[in-house]
Amino acid sequence: MKSGSVLVVSLVVVVFLALTVLLMLAIYGQMTSNYVLQQKKFLVSNVARSGAYSLAKLCEDWFRNGKRDLVDNLANSGTFQLSLPEFRGTVECEIDRSAEEYTIKCKASLDGVEDSYTLTLILIQLASDLTLPYAIDANGKVLGKNNLTIDGDVLVRKGDLRIGQHGTIKGSVYLMGDPTGGNLILEQGGVIEGDVLAVGNVESPKNRVTIEGDVILAGSLDKNITVKGTVTATSVEAVRAEISRRVNTTEPPLPATPTFFPEPAVQLQGNVISISEGGKTYYNGRSVEDGLSVSNTTLTLKIPSTGLLSIAVTKLDLGNNTTIKIEGTGVVMIYVRDEVDVKNHLTIKMNKDTRLLIYSNTDEKINDGEEDISFKNGLTVSEGGLYIYTPKKDVSIKNTSNVIGAIVARNVNFNNNIKFVVPKPLPIESIEFDTTTTNTPYYGLYVRYGSWGQ
After folding, report:
1. Which of 111, 280, 320, 367 could form a disulfide linkage to 266, CB 3.0–4.6 angstroms apart?
2. Is 210 helix (H, G, I), strand (E, B) or coil?
3. Which residues have C-beta within 8 Å of that of residue 157, sequence separation ≥ 6?
4. Hey, which bits of 111-201 come out as E strands?
């Protein structure tokens, strides 16, 4: 074969091989591109789904903690972005409310690839439900003396919050000051672990006071206070708006008087209130007006299989060294018309899924020198939770007490060496509210999911 022919053949072979390689690279590139596209679609789809479920879980937590207004505020804000640092695309979400349905839609986008996921939350509202989302909710003022620890958020609607030496709040503080007040006063060694939102001043006469979160205030900040977060000075209106965005500012509605109060009435025989005696007004002495009074003994409350024991008294007097023992799981509700007077060393025993609710709908007695709901030294609630729901009465807890509980009251006073821990929210499904008041029972609204899914 001539050399020219050999060269031509060789060039043809080289061109053929080059075209083959290019074709293979093109096919590989197309396969790679398709694979990358499919992976992006898969990633975007999962991110949209995860975003919707994460947002739904956040709404669920808000509902269960009595903060429905936060969900409604988010629904009214239109389209908003979720922050996902590990995802370099964007996630846009919106919540649409229709009657008692909340539709959550999240759209994820990455390099032109988009996908959406939708959840529908169908809510069953139980208007009789009650949870107490804050450790303390005071319509007036809160006063705490030395060595007070509050593990939970504190909401003060009209007055001031004063904490004595070495006091700690393991949560955030909200001071609405409506219409006056709204000041936070911290003594030496005080610590707020969360944020502080105050329409008034944040003051301390001593050094070594720390706020670990942010401070948003309309007044002044004392130079003796160390703030580890950011400090924002703004207007009263802006502070109240931010408080309303974060917490449920709906005023606690008044509970209704039990339908069985004061009759039928049962004179306590022995120290056991059991299944067959539930839904009654109790007293010892000669009449209902004497109320229920025990001392130096154990009062046993037996919850039936329905999970609710509901009783009522005109007044409750628990003397020194009294123990309340709750048997069973659920809720014990004690309506008290007048006052609760508890002497030294009351111990309340229950399991972790049980709550004792003491509630009242009457006003605090004026100028009698004593709080209507008064616990002396040594109150102990080490498991479960003690709910005190008395929006128009004052509550006091004296020295050396250790309580798992939550309080809604007019004013709250704590003495020295007290630890107060808010329990995990648990619905109280049978309390009724007074529908003649202007307040709607949105405070602490507990919402169940009838269904949720795509």
Report:
1. 280
2. strand
3. 137, 138, 139, 140, 176, 178, 249, 251
4. 113-125, 136-138, 142-144, 148-151, 154-156, 161-163, 168-169, 173-175, 184-186, 191-192, 196-198
Is the predicted pLDDT of residue 364 greater than 70, yes or no? yes
CA atoms within 13 A on the CB side of 147: 8
What is this structure's pTM? 0.72
- Dihedral of CA atoms 16, 22, 23, 24 in degrees, nearest 10, equals 110
Q: How far is CA 337 from CA 377, 379, 444, in A?
A: 23, 22, 22
pLDDT tens-digit map of 334-350: 999 999 999 999 999 99
Angle (CA) 78 80 83, round 5° = 165
Q: Hey, where are the domains in the chain? A: 3-125, 136-153+252-443, 176-246
Question: Could you say which DSSP state residue 102 is in?
Answer: E
Tell me the pLDDT tens digit for each residue of 182-230: 999 999 999 999 999 999 999 998 778 999 999 999 999 999 899 999 9
| Token pair belonging to 141 | 């003022």
**What is the identity of the amino acid at 55?**
L
406 C-beta neighbours (distance < 10 Å), count:
26
Q: Give yes or no for a contact between 79 and 104, defined as CB atoms under 8 angstroms apart.
A: no
List, for residues 49-87, the tens digit of each pLDDT value. Answer: 888 888 888 887 777 666 777 888 888 888 998 887 778
- What are 101's strand-pairing partners? 98, 122
Q: Partners of 215 in the beta sheet?
A: 196, 231
Residue 379: is it exposed, middle or buried by C-beta count within 10 angstroms (0-12/13-18/19+)? buried
CA-to-CA dists, residue 148 to 158, 191, 195, angstroms: 21, 10, 18
- Residues in Cβ contact with 237 at an 8 Å cutoff, skipping those fewer than 6 apart: none
* pLDDT given for residue 162 in this prediction: 95
